[in-house]
Amino acid sequence: MIGVGVGAFIIQDDKLLLVKRKKAPESFHWSLPGGKVDFMETIEDAIIREIKEELAITITLERLLCVTNHILPDEQIHFVAPTFVAHICCGQPKNQEPHALEAIGWYALNDLPEPLTLTTIKALEAYHP
């Protein structure tokens, strides 16, 4: 499978918002919230929509953080994954997709849960406040 996925690097009070995935790719890994880009949708609109659907919050995008070649040969997955630094402008995060997400939480950058998804690792490497 090949596709375009988007992620949001949301920092608040020096903590990063992460979700624990239930589904492939990278089942039971901690990840930045996000999802797939729909046909004829911009990456910016996609991440705003995905975060609203997944966590019931509205975000604003600050900047493009990085683009990851999310290639997982063992899972036959290849996504191009732009990640944006974003801020919550409305709402409190809650798990709106319990069929897809096991948990959500805020974590200090020096005390992150494991395992992390590839795109989350790459975003952390690129992040400089």
From TrEMBL:
It holds the Pfam family NUDIX. It comes from the Bacteria. InterPro entries: Nudix_hydrolase, NUDIX_hydrolase-like_dom_sf, NUDIX_hydrolase_dom. One of its GO terms (molecular function) is hydrolase activity. Keywords: Hydrolase. Residues 1-129 form the Nudix hydrolase domain. PROSITE patterns: NUDIX (PS51462). The keyword Hydrolase applies. Belongs to the Nudix hydrolase family. This is DNA mismatch repair protein MutT. It comes from Lysinibacillus alkalisoli.
